[in-house]
Design brief:
Rossmann fold, two-stranded antiparallel ribbon, 8 helices, about 220 residues, eight-stranded mixed β-sheet
């Protein structure tokens, strides 16, 4: 399957494409059984998550309010055995029990990818409405956690594909954990109680930034 991920990276112009291998490998690390993958904001990354869903025999839902535009750009051609919903993801999150029941799916999310407006207000609402559906052990992927006008890549190169979202995504994550984070450096940290590690937080600053939350509670 990793060869197929490499093929997807070649086709993609997404600023997330440097992280497609990591998205695939981290998703596959979750212990079975898996029930559901949800992607908020579909695109080339949908192909990577679709591979995971096929390999791990779980359901995959993609939500995007611009689905027809994305289909027209042929970013999600050849996706199979998945549910694509054209709607505002926050509105879907507000009624997800009903949506999942209509699809015949348990509203228990193992993998959640958030790549939508990249704004603080939107990300905060996505956390509020979607996190309650996470399984006790889950992984959450956030794109654009180091979004600047000028993007820096791990090889030292730069481009002007970004824009300044005023730390919107990483700020919402900071608020959720009540913890300041430096999105311009690579780091890994944990959130614990007296006995257990409750969350792991792993952040990569390259391109527009990519942050992985591991939920263990």
């Amino acid at each position: 399957m990793i060869e197929k991920v490499a093929e997807i990276k070649k086709r993609s112009s997404s600023t997330m494409s440097p992280y497609f291998d990591l998205l695939y490998l981290e998703s596959c690390e979750l212990a079975p059984p898996l029930n559901l993958i949800v992607e908020l904001g579909v695109g080339w990354s949908s192909h990577v998550l679709n591979l995971v869903a096929i390999e791990r025999k779980c359901k995959f839902i993609g939500v995007d309010k611009n689905m027809e535009e994305i289909k027209g750009q042929k970013k999600i051609d050849q996706l199979s055995d998945c549910h694509l919903i054209e709607a505002d993801d926050i509105l879907v999150g507000m009624k997800f029990k009903e949506v999942s029941r209509n699809l015949g799916i348990k509203p228990k999310i193992n993998i959640l990818l958030i790549d939508t407006s990249h704004l603080y207000s939107c990300t905060k609402l996505e956390i509020d409405f979607w996190f309650p559906y996470l399984e006790k052990k889950a992984k959450i992927f956030f794109h654009d956690t180091n979004l600047k006008k000028q993007l820096k890549y791990k090889d030292g190169s730069f481009d002007e594909k970004g824009w300044d979202n005023e730390r919107g995504v990483i700020r919402a994550i900071e608020e959720f954990f009540h913890k300041n984070m430096d999105e311009e450096i690579e780091f890994k940290t944990t959130i614990s109680d007296e006995k257990n590690i409750l969350w792991t937080i792993q952040h990569f600053p390259w391109s527009a930034g990519f942050t992985i939350l591991g939920k263990n509670c």
